[in-house]
Structure formats: structure tokens, C-alpha cells
């Protein structure tokens, strides 16, 4: 009989509703309990999500529940470190919403606790599990465009008052930086495509004068240039103060061709390099968590737990590598200088 993993949800906000739907909609896990800083009605939760969900009054109570095997942490970013460390020490496997943490020391605390406990770990850089990036990665692995020497993946999503998290995302304590708030999805996708061997970054940032975006306590647009150890280069723009449709720009340039969003060109007979070929990859075109590929990601996590394997694509090592580059970029912005990754590691 296939193993079904019992999951407890920590925090009950926008992301939590997407986690519950994805977990209960798959075959590898089921949500059995929730805790939140707000009072919750078990009957109302059952009516909304189906089944019977226990409501715990605290994180400690949820982590002490012997039935719960996996903790899905979806609360405020400033609580992620303490909650993830507590979950690891309680022997719970962990699904953690991004950002992993808002500071390098807190990220290291999580990393150390997870490694010490030997629990499974999944970071919610779920864009890796989208049709677009699963398709791009498969094409790169197959050598479609040869060796990629330049890549750019950019995040455009205006996060104003119409965005549910705006009230706390505008604060440095809540959002942290443009990359930590949201643009880290694009930086993570760039590392998926080009590898983790980043040697140095240089970043700069600016901010919109539009009144809603001017309320942010940190620069809302940043651009990060990456130099890889083998000489390749990459770029990531994180723009959360734009007034336009959501756009996850992707352009990879290789020795045998290029990939642009869901299209590719390549060196071949005739004029093949001079035209774009369409693919069946579906674009990442929404910032709504209800549209994110959590179900695919979580099913892979539950399968890895069952098999005793590390989480593929978005496990602890990937989470740490991406956040190291983010913290290096934010340090570059703060100190107005290039930052070597050796300073972070």
C-alpha cells in the first residue's frame, strides 16, 4: 500500500490555501492539522477543504502532534527560521515557503538544524516545477542549444495594495529585499539553467516614485549580474514595482542556439537560426499562488520521502545555493561593490 504522509500546516493565509489544495489534490499526502496566529473554526475549515482538520493553538502544539510527519511552513517570512528549526528538532520533514529566511545567519540555522536532524526538506521555489522550466531544463540537458554562456531570467510583478501581502511586504522586516520578497524565483530559475557555481555578483537597485511603491522600505527593483567560476555570465532583474502584466522573462544563449521564453532557435540547415520555433511549454504567467505548480512539486517531495531520497530540484542544497546568491546580491547593493560568494560561504 502506498505511503500517505500526514501534513500539518503552519500559518493559514494565502499560501496555505494553495498548499492544502495541492497536497489534498495529490496522492502522496493529506493535511490533517492547521495552526495559525488567528482563531480558526474547524467546521469552517472542513467545509472549505474537505475532511476533518484539527486546529492547534500554537506551533509547539502542532509539532508535538505525533500524527504529523511533515510540517508545511507558510506563515510570515520573519517566523520561518524559528519555525523551521523547531520542526527539524521535532523530527518533522519540512516544506518551507520562500524566502527560506530573511538573513544569512537565520538561513544557516535552518541548514544546520535540517542536516543535524536528517529530515527531508523542500523549498517552495516551485517555478522549477512549472511546464516552462521543466521543459527548458530537459532541452538544455539534451543539448538543444549547446553550452549556455549567457542567460537572463527576470521577474516582473507589480506588488501593490491590490496584492494580499502588501501590508507587510512593504516593510524591510517582512519583505527584506526585492529578491527575497519575490524575484528570488527568477534568480533560482537562472541557477537551475546555468548551475550553482557562482563566483561573484554585482548588483544595484532603485525604486519607483509611484506612491504605492514609494511606501516600500527597501528598493523594489534590483539588477544582479552573476559571474560563474568558468567565466559564463548571467543576469537577473527583480522588478516588483512595475505596472504591467506578470512576466517571467527568460533568455538563454548557447553555442548551438537560444531559448526565449517558450521558443527556441538553433544552428541548423537553412535559416533555422533566424527563426523561432514554438514549443508546447506553458508559460509562468501568474503571481497567484493558486496557479503555481505546488502539486507537482509536493508529489515529488512525498515520493522522495517514501524512497528515502533527497528532494530533487528544490531540496536543501538548492535552497541554500540560491539564498547564498541572494544574500550576496543584497550585500552588493548595500555596500555598492562586487561581492564574491566566498564571503557568504
Would you give an account of this structure?
The chain is of the alpha/beta class and about 350 residues long. It has two domains: about 5-120, NAD(P)-binding Rossmann-like Domain (Rossmann fold, 3-Layer(aba) Sandwich), CATH 3.40.50.720; about 130-290 and about 320-345, Dihydrodipicolinate Reductase, domain 2, CATH 3.30.360. The protein is about 35% helix and about 25% strand. It has twelve helices and 15 strands. The chain has helices spanning about 15-25, 40-50, 60-65, 80-90, 105-115, 130-140, 165-170, 180-195, 210-215, 295-305, 315-335, 340-345, and strands at about 5-10, 30-35, 55, 70-75, 95, 120-125, 150-155, 200-205, 220-230, 235-240, 245-255, 255-260, 265, 275-280, 340. Strands 14-13-12-11-7-10-9-8-15 form a nine-stranded mixed sheet. A six-stranded parallel sheet has the order 3-2-1-4-5-6, sandwiched between helices. α1 (about 15-25) packs across α10, α4 (about 80-90) packs parallel to α5 and α8 crosses α11 (about 315-335). The longest helix has 20 residues, at about 315-335. The mean pLDDT is about 95.
Amino acid at each position: 500500500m502506498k505511503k500517505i504522509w500526514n501534513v500539518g500546516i503552519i500559518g493559514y493565509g494565502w499560501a496555505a490555501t494553495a498548499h492544502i489544495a495541492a497536497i489534498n489534490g495529490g496522492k502522496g499526502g493529506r493535511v490533517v492539522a492547521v495552526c495559525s496566529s488567528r482563531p480558526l473554526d474547524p467546521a469552517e475549515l472542513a467545509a472549505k477543504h474537505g475532511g476533518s482538520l484539527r486546529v492547534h493553538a500554537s506551533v509547539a502544539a502542532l509539532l508535538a502532534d505525533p500524527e504529523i510527519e511533515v510540517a508545511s511552513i507558510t506563515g510570515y517570512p520573519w517566523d520561518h527560521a524559528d519555525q523551521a528549526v523547531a520542526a527539524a528538532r521535532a523530527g518533522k520533514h519540512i516544506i518551507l515557503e520562500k524566502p527560506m529566511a530573511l538573513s544569512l545567519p537565520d538561513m544557516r540555522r535552518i541548514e544546520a538544524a535540517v542536516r543535524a536532524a536528517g529530515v527531508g526538506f523542500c523549498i517552495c521555489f516551485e517555478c522549477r516545477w512549472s511546464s516552462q522550466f521543466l521543459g527548458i531544463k530537459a532541452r538544455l540537458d539534451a543539448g538543444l542549444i549547446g553550452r549556455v554562456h549567457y542567460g537572463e531570467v527576470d521577474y516582473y510583478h507589480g506588488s501593490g495594495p491590490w496584492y494580499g501581502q502588501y501590508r507587510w511586504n512593504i516593510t524591510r522586516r517582512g519583505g527584506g529585499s526585492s529578491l527575497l520578497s519575490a524575484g528570488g524565483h527568477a534568480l533560482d530559475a537562472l541557477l537551475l539553467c546555468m548551475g550553482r557555481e557562482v563566483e561573484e555578483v554585482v548588483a544595484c537597485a532603485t525604486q519607483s516614485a509611484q506612491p504605492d511603491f514609494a511606501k516600500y522600505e527597501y528598493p523594489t527593483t534590483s539588477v544582479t549580474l552573476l559571474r560563474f567560476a568558468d567565466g559564463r555570465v548571467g543576469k537577473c532583474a527583480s522588478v516588483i514595482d512595475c505596472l504591467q502584466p506578470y512576466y517571467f522573462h527568460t533568455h538563454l544563449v548557447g553555442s548551438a542556439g537560444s531559448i526565449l521564453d517558450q521558443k527556441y532557435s538553433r544552428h541548423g540547415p537553412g535559416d533555422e537560426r533566424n527563426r523561432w520555433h514554438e514549443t508546447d511549454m506553458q508559460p509562468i504567467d501568474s503571481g497567484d499562488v493558486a496557479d503555481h505548480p505546488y502539486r507537482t512539486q509536493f508529489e515529488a517531495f512525498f515520493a522522495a520521502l517514501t524512497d528515502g531520497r533527497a528532494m530533487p530540484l528544490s531540496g536543501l542544497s538548492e535552497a541554500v545555493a540560491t539564498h547564498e546568491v541572494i544574500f550576496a546580491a543584497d550585500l552588493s547593493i548595500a555596500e555598492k561593490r562586487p561581492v564574491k560568494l566566498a564571503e557568504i560561504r
